[in-house]
Fold each of these.
Amino acid sequence: MKSHVETLRWEGASRGEPGFVRMIEQTLLPGQHVELSVRSVEEMVDAIYRLAIRGAPAIGIAAAYGVLLGMQTAQVEDGDDFLGRTGEVCATLAKARPTAVNLFWALERMQERARRDHARGATPDALLEGLFEEAFAIQREDAKQCQRMGELGAKFLRDGMVVLTHCNAGALATGGMGTALAPIYVAHGEGKKIAVYADETRPLLQGARLTAWELTQAGVEVTLITDNMTASVMQQGKIDAVFVGSDRIARNGDVCNKIGTYGVAVLARQHGIPFYVVAPLSTFDPQLASGAEIPIEERPGKEVTFGFGKRTAPEGVRVYNPAFDVTPAELVTAIVTEVGVIEGPTMERVEEALRRGGRI
Ligand code: MRU
């Protein structure tokens, strides 16, 4: 099934003008469905930081296109100069957000491509050509991986099931149909009736603004609840399974995702509900032995005190606003990746999947 939403795309150069990126301005959803043009590295950093584009795989694709924005008009003397400049552009893009490892994975992949081509003696023009190929491949592969994860994850969904999800891990967050929402789209496409409860996802409301919007567009039944209703909804026996995405998964299977995910996982365990994580291998960080090492982004307090377009807390109040949390592997029933399902994730099983996917 093809998703209705195209989150971002590269618009090729025309009439001597350089290419640029078109993306849905996600901060305006669901009120306005408009596209934003991003034409420079600085604009891309800003778009990622502001969450105009967000969700781990989409951030990775955006970063790869950011490299093209930086390099397509770069005046370079030779291949060495091209490599140096690419490194600088990547260093700037790497500062956009700290947690989703797809950002760093994509930047490393772009640089590795340039290094490889340079080692073969490619000219600056050929090096640029290589970067274009690599960025398009990253988006194309992501779409395929979403499809594959959707097929594998759909096996856990039977007709009539009700799924709870947190944040937005759908088409808006990827280059394809999504991660956590992909099994739901696939099952829906197979004619199974799957209903979804979407957590609102405080403070930036990705569940309310994005997941509820995206599922509605796709014709999937969705019920919105505030985050503090999850426990009660589970206690009432309304939820059969939880599906979430991830921003970074450590080698031991600890899963970092949007703040609030850990609470949902604890509640799922308490109520005997399976907790599935759906994420491509590009979201795994083979360098980190456990989730304790994952850098957690802290965002401005204003997102909490001014979240609904008006002041909801006294001026000057101290705010703690971590954007992500870590769910220990023991609370995860299975991680669905494009190379297979990791049931009851342990370091051994995660490493086996990473080896199969050529990540280690
Ligand atoms: O702050 P966001 O909106 O970028 O956070 C996104 C999430 O936490 C998603 O669940 C995660 O990136 C997986 S997206 C397929």
Amino acid sequence: MESVSHENRLFPPTSEFVENAHISGMDAYKAMYVKSLEDPEGFWAEAAQDLHWFKPWDSVLDASNAPFYKWYDGSRTNLSYNCLDRNIEAGLGNKVAIHWEGEPGDTRELTYKQLHLEVCRFANALKARGLQKGDRVAIYLPMIPELAIAVLACARIGAVHSVIFAGFSADSIRDRVLDSETCMVITGDGGYRRGKMLELKKIVDEGVASCACVKDVIVVKRGDEHPVDCPMQDGRDSWYHELVADVSDDCTAEEMEAEDLLFLLYTSGTTGKPKGIMHTTAGYQVFSYLTSKYVFDLKADDVYWCTADVGWITGHTYIVYGILQNGVTQVMYEGAPNHPDEGRFWEIIEKYKVSIFYTAPTAIRAFMKWGDKWVTGRDLSSLRLLGTVGEPINPEAWIWYHKMIGAERCPIVDTWWQTETGGHMLTPMPGATPTKPGCATTPFFGIEPAILTDDGKEVEAGILAIKKPWPGMLRGIYGDPQRFKDTYWCKWGGKYYFPGDGARRDEHDYIWILGRVDDVVNVSGHRIGTAELESVFVEHKDVAESAVVGVPHEIKGQGLIAFVTVIEGRDHDDHLRKELIAMIDKSIGKFARPERILFSSDLPKTRSGKIMRRILRDIAEGKELGNTTTLADPGVVEELQEQFLKS
Ligand code: WTA
């Protein structure tokens, strides 16, 4: 495997940062890391002491039924309690938990006490609707406080939330709702995006029309200023504000068992069917708490801002659970980075005096393209730490971020992790690790990575593996334990977790992530399985076969190129192209649209009929083709190359 970069400049944290950091200097990091591997149970028991437990655990880790690991077995706890009640008891009740800003500029401020009150009231409203512990609830909301409130209200009463990013289509909602037999959907009439109102309720209505399991739809009103057409179905739909109007302010947090399901979050894999990743209570609680504390070096007076949507794992862990457990103040923003203009993010940082800023490389690349003028003139001196997540960051974007946003003063934590890992796995420690542009560097405490060949030999560049279980790890794929084992644990005979990324270790023992080794593509940090698009295309009556590949994209990191074989005698023109795009919008969502669709009479295949994606990728990148001698029909490649250059 080729390395993406040979960047070797080192950027140590400033001495001021090191002095005040939770983890001060490389020696401190190394000592604690060694301890965490030598005595993982001791390490994770100590970490859990900061949190509230109704009942302590009997064992920290139970590996007797691997890979179905159990953490903190025997304990009872509640994540909403640890995010809210615990902080209020510690005297933080009047501290701002969330400074919220809507895209049109409207604002709301919620202290820990107010957030607690809203969560308790909504939790009571959910109970009044008959929702019970273990019931699954889909949440399809814009980035408004009710999104965090709904998540925490579910956690409070032990209902399992399944947040669906509000860019997904009606068909995606349907598939997720049916897969987890969701009995309730919490949505909004709409949400703002680039000045427009997205009509969310209409999408939900279409999505759940054929889902008999959905008995309740609760609708948050966002469109006071711009009323949205929002027909309410009698007996099924109710308004959030009406439900919370006459319920009690008190709601005792449910005592949850350690391995009780906390949430489901659907993510893409290598088949056409997204997986319902399962996260449970106690382990995720400790891991989200501890990674937030150390990786963001959280302190009492920080103002933290993560620009992700709660619809993705980053928002679950590093907007809601990990951050609130640490009792800090954060900013939550509803809309687009370029509305009303490209300076919006920097205006928000200046306005709220944000000290920790966590965003995606794709956003950084977009800002670079929009130009420095949006940044210069803004007072960003409140910033002390920057982070990136979701995809590899190219050194050029890293350097721009470091200079323009961080004023060469702020450490950058490039955090590698996944929906499945629940929290950070590889990341610099901001007050310790000298960073390198584009490198996720070193493991978090308790995480033991290895780089292996297919047959399990340790190598310098190869496939990333994780040797030890960790508390935030996924516990399964909803309804499909076999797929869980096959996908993550079979590659090296059940010994290691297989994340699906390639990696390289350098001379400093730093790990560089080289991108996915499977057919998963990261478009603007959104994870998309190429098989999902392929299975949509082949539903078209004129399509015989299709293969989708990811190629480098200047802003999005990766873009999708679709190769589509049309049934002989059928037209393949712009009309078909438009129909295929419309199918993607309907089945997945607009964010999964391919950059280009190329038609051809066949696809390059081996003699045994396997599509050679490597060759398709080379064609799509306009590269010299490697070895094509194993192809059944080398002529196909010429046709495709011609097509590529023409279109
Ligand atoms: C990729 C997002 C390089 C990786 C938290 C992983 C990264 C997938 C990084 C998970 C990073 C995430 N550097 N690649 N810092 N962070 N990735 O589940 O390919 O949406 O497997 O979780 O994103 O995407 P997911």
Amino acid sequence: MCDCIFCKIAQHEIPVEPVYEDDQVIAFDDMNPQAPVHTLVVPKVHVQDITGNLEPETLVSLHKAICEVGIRKGLTQGLRVISNAGADAGQTVMHLHFHVLGGTSLGEGLLPEV
Ligand code: AMP
Ligand code: ZN
């Protein structure tokens, strides 16, 4: 049994309202939003992070899903995509995901003040 929360969401064992879904990918809103729009784009296959092995068709679906989230959320003024990988990046859910953020000016800095 997989005990991964994003696998359970991808397999509809935990219900979410999808922003976008196809056979490879599901996108849903982050439960702790960091911006007016904060949606997670998640492959249905369990891969730990962006350094893991992904089929080309999954990469294509992830890209399409990110673009679809931008359209469906009305992010005509821009969006930011972040994927944390590993401890230094602060990854907390060990299943690859892309944060799609927008709906306000996010500024030019890539990181908060450190
Ligand atoms: P990261 O720190 O990059 O691993 O991001 C994990 C993100 O997943 C955080 O922003 C959490 O708020 C979010 N998250 C964790 N569990 C859920 C869930 N069940 N539904 C929606 N978002 C979640
Ligand atoms: Zn998983």
Amino acid sequence: MTFQGDDYLLAGEAPVKEPARQAYYIAKLRRHARAFEEEHGRKPFGCVRTFGCQMNARDSEKFAGILREGGFILTEEAEADVVLMNTCTVRENAANRVFGRLGQLTGLKKKRPWMVVGICGCLAQEDGIADEIRTHYRVVNLVFGTHNLYKFAEYLDKCLSEHARVIEIEGDSKTIMEELPNERKYRFKAGVNIMFGCDNFCTYCIVPHVRGREKSRRPEDILDEVRRLAADGVTEVMLLGQNVNSYGKGLEEPITFAQLLRQVCEVEGIRRVRFMTSHPKDLSDELIQAMAECPKVCRQLHLPLQSGSSSLLKRMNRHYTKESYLALVERIRAAIPDISLSTDIIVGFPGETEEDFEETMDVVRRVRYDSAFTFLYSRRSGTPAADFPDQVSKEAAQPRFDRLLALVQEIAAEKNAARVGTVEEALVEEADAEREGYVTGRLSGNTMVHFPGDPAMIGTIVPVHLTESKGFYYMGEVASC
Ligand code: SAH
Ligand code: SF4
Ligand code: F3S
């Protein structure tokens, strides 16, 4: 937009309706940016730091897009005039990392006193955190939560116009606001939100408390976004939600996730479709069939186990048993034999005995995951499990964690080794950071492969001969067709 356009837009009051209201505030940010440039002889720098999951990463693309359209140059934290930390609180160490960074930002702010330090995301939304920041972290002058994140431009304008400290946390609402600027990290692949929040209330998990109730986006809006992305050169999309298998609940026109997946696959130009996360309790045979029948759906499924003990699964409120999980895996493998399976496992959940833990090891041995994320249980205040009386000590949990990790790594290495010698398609994502003259690609099953290549190949899908397994990734070379 031109400066004259901004003057016209800003001559009136801020519109009440979205997204026009945020467009108005983005124009105001551009006005701040011009004033800053006149004073400092350079454009203002902005930085968004992301902690947490893919959904947070997707939100960060919006914040970065707002900063860029607001006249900021996107840069690193060390030189930024506005730093926004998009936080996670799923485990205690995720939250601690954020508070650790604030110490370093205090030093930077001494050098640039006009700096805006903002905190948003799941940690900011957690009960009591905004107040803690208000009283103990003076370096922070902007705080907002997950339910009002679409108002970032408005809040930042308030900080800059009034030199005010802005702390705004809102309760859950039904609003879905996706029409915001977007600074995509990759030009050829993109995450697309299909739903927000979570209704499952696993007893260890804080996500439903900070992300609110489950809300599905309308399929037309999702498909429009995918079509726009395809027109913009995107070939791989990742459909995002905390539990994509329950997509569609509460929409006027009923639709299942399997139906949505088929429709996304029909979008011309899209060559690969992934999704996460799948809750085992809601994974339907209809979805398995859709995955088996649609060649664009990547041969990868993330199916969090959490624990192999049926009694712990009950106390976790997961609504499946060891046996039903194993039966589900069998059905998936029967329909899609070449599927890569990955999982999440928690070690040391309250009440976990050696026998419970052995059940988890047993499932890992039987399923033979291609990869797994393993976590030590972290007590999150406000969740039911935090008050369970039989908390497991770190001394008991750590050796179990180490044994599990060793098993997971051993199996993953064996499974990767078994594919050496085959040719698979890889989407080339970037120049290899460590090897001159190499590029890095992602296989359908989600494993990375490094092979000799030119950066001009980035964004294309090429057949790669997997020549060597390095445990978690491959070395390869382009196969001649
Ligand atoms: N919605 C996804 C998971 C989101 S959180 C699902 O249900 O699969 C990602 C992972 O973090 C979870 O799968 C779980 O393994 C882990 N996690 C969540 N809360 C945790 C806690 N309190 N302690 C340790 N790990 C936790
Ligand atoms: Fe958390 Fe369970 Fe919801 Fe996943 S499904 S986000 S683990 S409550
Ligand atoms: Fe963390 Fe929030 Fe995602 S707590 S895992 S960033 S939904």
